[in-house]
Each structure stands twice: as structure tokens, then as C-alpha cells.
Amino acid sequence: MPRSVDHLLERAVTIPVTGAALHADLGLPPDARGIVLFAHGSGSSRKSPRNRSVAAALQEAHMATLMLDLLTPDEERVDAETRHLRFDIPFLAARLVAATVWVRQDPRIGFLPIGYFGASTGAAAALVAAAHLKDAVHAIVSRGGRPDLADLALDRVWAPTLLIVGGYDEPVLDFNRDALRRLRGVKALRIVPRAGHLFEEPGAMAQVIALARPWFDKHLAGTAAIGGLGDQS
User: Fold this and answer.
1) Which residue, among 127, 134, 177, 175, has the nearest Cα to 150 in the 3D structure?
2) pTM: predicted TM-score of the whole model, two decimal places
3) Which domain holds residue 175?
4) Is the residue at 224 inside a domain?
């Protein structure tokens, strides 16, 4: 049964991937116009209060959300010690691709245009996945992302991409300025003044939401879903 968690009406789902199963929370408001998959950053999870605040705002705008853990609980325990998997961008991107395929095959949501919301290393995974899936992904928003970790995939991303960076996050801001030059499609860089990498400052996430929500509204709402999922070879 659906449950209300942190103002989200959610249903727990399990997504099969090669050799594992991922836990996720599917939020499906009435008359959903698109679905946004969340790729969380290093050391974070689908319970991230900052990303959940974004998800709540998107649901209010009639967009479905999939709060997804790209690592299994066992992998998270290993990664807490080694800090290795959180920076394995091809591995995380492959998990996000698998989740996207799962979305497309679910009759409740498979017809909805797809967007990605990525934070930190999760943003790099979102960019790599979007490059792989091509026109199956309609919009991307990166919060404090590390697009430099997407490497050559940046040159193959055509989905409209919004890069949001904190004004105090100077090294990451430089990475995003470089990425902006390489992205091929509609793109924008927005700086949240007096915000750091995690956007923990008062009002910082409200500004992220004020930027992300209209981006998805513009590029997902009213967009017809594309049946194919790019080159899966």
C-alpha cells in the first residue's frame, strides 16, 4: 500500500539489476506529466532530506518521482569503508540505466517522459546514463554535481541540462563551467549565492527547487515519451 512519508505519497518498489536488487520509493501523483529519477551523491541515499524536498515540490507540480538507491545495503556498508563504489561512475550509471529500463516497462509510469535529478557524483552518473540512452531522457538537473567525472560522456549529452552550483563551492563551480561548454543541447548554469556544496544554508534548497521545478516543467510536461532506450549494446 502507498504510504505518506515526509509529505510524499510513496510506494516502495524493488528494481532488479544484474546480480542485485535496488530499493526505491515511487511517488506517483494524480495526472503525472513526467517522472524524475533521483541519483544521489556520494555517501547519500534515497532518504536524503534535501532531495526529498525537491521530490515533494515536483510531485506538487504533477510529476512522478523515483527516489532510488544505486547501491544495495551490502554495497553501501562496503563503500562506507572503502569509498570506492561512490566514485565508480560507469557502475552507478549502469544501475541508473537499468532503473530507467524498469520505468519504461512498468505500465503505471512507462509512458511518462523521463528526467534525471543528480547530486554530486550522482549527477555524473546521470549524465553518463543520459549519453547512453540518448533521446529517451528529456531533461537533467544537477545539484552540486561533479560533471567532470562524466568524462567523455559530456560530449554526447543532448538532453536539456541545468547545472546548479553553490556560490561557495568554488572547485565544483569550475568543473561545471567547463562542463557547460561541452554539453551539446539546451543548457544553463545557475549559481545559488552563499551556498556550499551540500546546500545546507538556510534558504539554499528553496532556491534549488525554484530553479529545478520550472526546468522539469518546461522540458517534461507535455513532452511525448519516446519508446526506445537508445543503444543497449
Assistant:
1) 127
2) 0.91
3) 3-219
4) no
Q: Which of 212, 223, 37 is nearest to 113 (CA)?
A: 223
Grid look-up 504510504 returns 3
For residue 213, being part of any structural domain is answered with yes
Residue 131: phi, psi to the nearest 5? -65, -35
> Has residue 233 been placed in a domain?
no
Other beta carbons less than 10 A from residue 187's beta carbon: 18
Cα separation, 220 vs 33, in Å, equals 7
> Is 216 in contact with 36 (CB distance < 8 Å)?
yes
Grid look-up 543548457 returns 187
CA distance linking residue 108 with residue 175, whole number of Å? 37
The grid coordinates of residue 80 equal: 562506507
Q: How far apart are CA 136 and CA 105, in angstroms?
A: 13
**Alpha carbon 101 to chain centroid distance?**
15
| Residue 216, beta-bridge partner list | none
Sole residue written with cell 532531495: 51
Q: What pairing do the DSSP bridges indicate for beta strands 35-39 and 187-192?
A: unpaired
Number of domains in the chain: 1
Q: What is the pLDDT of residues 35-91, one digit of tens each?
A: 999 998 766 678 788 889 999 999 999 999 999 999 998 888 887 788 778 889 999
Do residues 9 and 29 make contact, with C-beta atoms less than 8 angstroms apart? yes
Report the CATH number at residue 49.
Answer: 3.40.50.1820
pLDDT tens-place string over residues 18-44: 989 999 999 999 889 999 999 987 666
Specify if 74 maps to a domain.
yes
